Amino acid sequence: MKVVLDTNVLISSIFFSGPPLQILKAWRKADVQFVMSPEIIEEYLRVSRVLADQFPSVEINPILTLIITHSEIVQPQVLDRQICQDPDDDKFLACALSSDTKIIISGDKHLLKLKEHCGITILTPRAFLDQFLQQ
């Protein structure tokens, strides 16, 4: 199952525990496939650099490199209009639309407020786990 991860979910999966970490573990077992675009990767790297300074014991670069290397990377389609209240969040929708990915996992209030767009469901990490990964 292909998913697009909002930056807050991916970074939380690396630095913290809880549902985002469970999603990362599901990716490691190949239960989910991450899809990203160059713009999303750039944001992941930018945010991780900030947190790496706050958590120097976490070696973020090898982890991110591994995740990016083993993810599907797509060129996002250009959206004909702004969709999210925060235009920075549109990159996640564009990525999902370009890759025929039906799920975005996010903790961002602007994305979650949409709930759905063009057949793409936007879920919190907990909701994703409950709906798709519970044994």
Describe the structure.
It is globular and about 40 Å long. The chain starts with a strand and ends with a helix. The longest helix has 17 residues, at 38-54. Helix content is 53%, strand content 14%. With 135 residues, the protein is an alpha/beta fold. The mean pLDDT is 92. A hairpin with a 2-residue loop joins strand 5 and strand 6 (120-123). Strands 3-2-1-4-6-5 form a 6-stranded mixed β-sheet, with helices on both faces. The relative contact order is 0.20. The protein has 7 helices and 6 strands. The protein has one domain (2-130): 5'-nuclease (Rossmann fold, 3-Layer(aba) Sandwich), CATH 3.40.50.
How would you briefly describe this protein structure?
The chain is of the alpha/beta class and 135 residues long.
List the helices and strands and how they pair.
Blueprint: E1 2-5, H1 7-15, H2 19-28, E2 33-36, H3 38-54, H4 60-69, E3 72-73, H5 90-99, E4 103-105, H6 109-114, E5 116-117, E6 120-123, H7 125-133
Parallel strand pairs: 1-2, 1-4, 2-3, 4-6
Antiparallel strand pairs: 5-6
